[in-house]
Fold Phosphatidylinositol-glycan biosynthesis class W protein.
Amino acid sequence: MASMQASIYELPKHATEKRSLESIEQSFASLFVILTTFSGIILARVVIQRLKQSLTVNYLLEFPLIVLPTVLFVTVANGYSGQFVGLMIVLSFWFILRTRALSRAKCRAHFDLGSRVHALTIVRALTHLITAVCILAIDFKSFHRPYRKSRLFGAQLMDTGIGLFVVTMGLVSRRSRNSNDLRRSLLRSALPLILLGIARVVAIVTIGYGQDEHEYGQHLNAFFTLGFTKLMGSVLSLVARSDTQLLPLAIVVIVTHQLSLSVGGISDYVMDDDLPRSTLFSANREGLLSLPGFVAIYLLSICLNRWLVSKTLLTYGEIIAKLRGLLIMALNCWGFTMASALTVGISRVTCNLGYIFWMFAIMSTMVGLSIFIFDLIINNNSAADEGDRLEQGSTVAIMAEPSPEGSRGLHVICESLNLNGLTFFLLANVSTGCVNIFLKPEDRSDPASVVILTAYMFLVTFAAFLLYERRIRIA
């Protein structure tokens, strides 16, 4: 999401074409890279669950299982993502059969997803990890070029960054019900993000660091997009008198936005390189005119979260119904993503209809997989093992999700990034700037790039871990 001095865009022929089969291929290729990091989280959970070590040892075990594969699969090992995911699918089936997890799940009294669904912790951490790796990796020659942001149309890995950040922001937000809610949302969330955006502009101007104007405009950046989205989304949500009214409200925003892009000529205006940037608005047209799309994503994400947490203590039948709903959502969103790629296109720079469908295709897929694997399979297996130890005579084993305190440390890196996500992202941006200034990544060999990226990720994740270990929340 950060703008680099080097070009961050990939401009093959299809990138300027609205209707492209390439975008469909890219959308699934991006999903596979996300799944490699997700696979590392699964491996780490299984290992840590069995070893039951201290938080520090857990972190040291998680890092090579989660972060190192992320670094490798966007650089020197980019051609092996599919094979790795395929291997993990085979191992997952073997684990399910060996542990009889599905049979045990059917006998379980209930499943406690918690007031904040654990799957959301996973997907938020995925977004932070992949973005943090990519914003620095892109400056190395070892970075896989097809993962770079699309200039106009496309669905590359780095195109997911800002969209998934908005989705995860919405997933942990709620509708503004009154002026007090709105004031709290603006002061605690929107204003700090906007101030960070201003600070980043000042820093870039001061040190002469390059910013590509085709990303958000000459002056705007990701922090502004997140802050303005939170601001506009919070204000707009006041119109809805209930959470269920957010869905039609979001649909109205999406339809209006897409019509303005396709019929009103806004898309051509944003993407025309020949148009001058003579005013503040025209200079930042990419960032400003994509905001309605991001606001729609934010509102839809609140709807998704309300549905997920509408009931968190579920029977086996209810959790299967929840998973079935996520599967239907994912299949529909992927179908509409492919249809959009062949009609209106997929464009991050305008946050059009195709991009919105793509974001929710990824999110519904990852949330569904997280609930299935962690809540239904892995957590169920550990709960059953605990039940086997406790079940004596008439004693009834408690087959529920472990308490928050008891489960602390089972996802050290994920929990650390969720506790201080903004702090982690800020540290990643500052560290990226330092590496670019002092280490000249464009001149580094492939092995050196992997070493630098690994050291950088160790620094930023360990800093987040130290805060988590001490239960310190900054932002």
About this structure: The chain has a mean pLDDT of 89.
